[in-house]
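[09:14] KT: can someone run the structure on this one? pasting the chain below
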Amino acid sequence: MSLSDHPRAYGTAAVALAFVAGVLMTLGFKDLYPDLERRFQQRKVQRRARRGTEGRRSSFFWGPVELQDRESLDIAVPGEAQIPRDNGISEGIEGCIGRTPLIEIHSLSEATGRTILAKAEFLNGAGNSPKDRVALNMIQAAEKSGFLVPGRGDTIYEGTVGSTGISIAALARAKGYKAHICMPDDQSLEKSDLLHHLGATVERVPVQPITSPDHFVNLARRRAKEHTESSADSSVGFFADQFESPFNFEAHFKTTGPEIYFQTSGRVDAFVAGAGTGGTISGVAKYLKEEAKLKNLQVVLADPQGSGLYNKIRHGVMYSSTEKEGTRRRQQVDTIVEGIGINRITENFEAGRDLIDNAVRVTDEQACKMARWLVEHDGIFCGSSSAVNCVAAVVAALSLPEGSQVVTVLCDSGARHLSKFWKNIAAMGLEDEPKPDNLLTLLSIERPR
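[09:31] RB: done, structure tokens below
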């Protein structure tokens, strides 16, 4: 018997056909048309940025897609950069780098009346700092050019105060290279101990000005050259050159900046970060201002005492109006803070210098008190550069209208700073004092009038 001869069967088939069509329209739309979906998501993020809200679009066709936009990591963002998708299984230690959480630091938000968010870069999985992004990008660029070849016996040389060296050492082992790290001897012992455990050769050298051939960066460059010239086999010495390599700020332009844009739906009123090499602040600033076109964004440098970058941003000179840059043989920056602060302009800092709107100078005392505050109020155990960033984020937030949103960076854990920074906090008696309840009074920060 045909369907046309049986009304009930005909009706059932029609209902089934309509059901299948409805499912395809509502649930399969983005799978059938992925390019259309990406364009839709990008327009939606841009509209949210203009509105400054998280509003939800109600639509019969697009409603099911809306539910996925915080979990999907394949959303288009301005420019060529894309947030990579994690399908559940990542390829080795490299899969643990990037896509770090953006967390609200509640106590700082409450103290300022503005939302203060921090990129949890200490959760990068190789070296547990933002330098993972830089090290990976520099190594990949050298591999792409054919300079580094896995398994040939090549060695990566770098001059670093610790974090970049740790990231390089971890990735070098994973990718078939050796690591040779030169670092100043005034850095915490935890860093050089960790480097040893990661299989790196470590040279701790006396502190020297950059003009000296024995400065830790110049020494690493020389060691790489000596390796290549004296190698009995075909192996080479690769000097990563984090301070001047364009692949440093490029790593943050390609990943950190787009991630911040995605995580905030484009609503960032200020970005605050310190500078050692300058890669983080330049890369993120270039992405958010030039690529994402956030024209009202304020980029603020967080600078520790003794560094010359504050004066360079605020007054156009490194030291004073009577002294030319580079004419004085200065030692390491006079601060307990490690990882940020410098008395010269690197290529990475120069790449984004014109995009930096302001600078905040942070004293060692303020950094120590902020670090202790974050433990007491937020359970965040951070290192010295993270504490500097947070102090500057508070100052920057207070200069903005109430309700503004500020993003900064938590660089690494306090576990890497026990013998120096946290030892100093204990010596100041901060761990024995009652829990402070007024952040601005604690840090001697006045509200703008």
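[09:33] KT: thanks! Residues 7-27 form the longest helix (21 residues).
[09:34] RB: yep, looked fine to me
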